[in-house]
Description:
Blueprint: E1 6-11, E2 19-21, E3 28-33, E4 36-41, E5 46-48, E6 53-55, E7 62-68, E8 82-87, H1 96-102, E9 105-109, E10 119-124, E11 129-135, H2 141-144, E12 145-151, E13 160-169, H3 171-177, E14 187-188, E15 192-200, E16 212-216, E17 230-233, E18 237-238, H4 245-265, E19 272-276, H5 281-292, E20 296-300, H6 303-312, E21 315-317, H7 323-331, E22 337-340, H8 348-354, E23 362-364, H9 368-374, E24 377-378, H10 379-382, H11 391-399, E25 407-412, H12 416-424, E26 431-435
Parallel strand pairs: 1-10, 19-20, 19-22, 20-21, 22-23, 23-24, 25-26
Antiparallel strand pairs: 1-9, 2-7, 3-4, 5-6, 7-8, 7-10, 11-12, 11-14, 13-15, 13-17, 13-26, 15-16, 16-18
Amino acid sequence: MEGAQQQFHWRRGVGRAAHSVAELGDQRLLAFEKNLSFIGEMPEKRTFGHTGLRGNLGSRRLVKSFQCVQLERRFLQTTSYLFTVLWQVHPLYLSVTDILCYGDVSVTDTSSYVKSEVNMNVRVASAETMRAVRFHRFGEPSEVLRMEHVPVPHPEQGRIRVRVTACALNPADWALCRGLFPGDMPRGIGLDVSGIVDAVGNGVHGVEVGDAVFGPTDYARCASAGAADRAVLAHWTLVPENLSLDQATAITLSAETAFRSLESLEVDYGHTVLINGAGTTVGFAAVQLALSRGARVIATAGATHSRKLAELGALVTNYGQGMVERVNGLAKGDVDLVLDTAPPSGVLADLVTIAGGDPKRVLTITDFTAADALGVRHSFSEGHPPRWDKLGEFAHLASRGKLYVPIAGVFPLDSWRQAMEVSLSGHARGKLLLKPGMRQS
């Protein structure tokens, strides 16, 4: 079988493997299996006993690391072995970088050294690692989350990867830890991110390596999310020059949730709208977006953000006893629609009263149990898909000073536990950001 073809298939998915070119001589082999290793002289033919791979390795020039993921014919007998082999790839066909970056390619080596055909389906395993905050089981965030060093993810079709500049923490992160939207484990936290693009998947247009972008992380399909050194995004938009990456991060999830909620309520010009919990990040964004639609906005908020909400154009009142009367006094008539963004506090029945007794004119994004009991609409019952198509609009508004979300604290990534504790306390009073590039003081 002199000159027989030898074909290899590389699959994308785990990340870009580190690779090097080494002139190590014709008969040298270095192989690793977990913590075991051996170095030996290679005869003309040699069997890898613990992988079952047979063949004449011939002259070797390239060092590559693989993670075995699928049995192909008789050549691979087991999975999950990380091994390093020295293999010759003919330079006329494809460079190693092409193989590792683009995947799903076949390389044919017609070297006369090859005496048998080997068809391997392997996944490139990244030798490069990063920090990531993840959980492997459901439970209380403080119990299940931990910082780990994990392989850098690779952007699949239609996705990009960023070197994270800032990541925001949200109540949704803690809900995911407790079992919301169950899926494959492990999973990461940090759903909204800004960063600099450092890898682009197939089929992606309009963005290049080096661009500053923001958007939601692809947390459901990746083993890590935004609380990491790098993150994969399925939706994004470019950050305008006059918008900081921190503020772009802060508006991502809050603006989308607020926009989708106002769309569900069909808030329009001339409506009088009550935003309950306007001091939350979603409520703060909802006030601005409702005002931009020409609505008359009444906002309930604590002392921290009352003044700023009034400056934006809302009529502001406090929470607590007498809220119904105070809101009716500000409205000087009917309140058409109510959006509840506050943490559950037993006021949903009062909000229905403010809406003229009609629970269908009220939508909550937090108090689902009470909503079901009262017939109030909530974000899950509405079933509207996320509106990531509006990210560009949010960026435009933010760059003109028409949309922003208060940032309450900025922490180094390594201080994620401190940030988590502040968030879980319920007294963050704005977005909490994690920054991988920030040093601990």
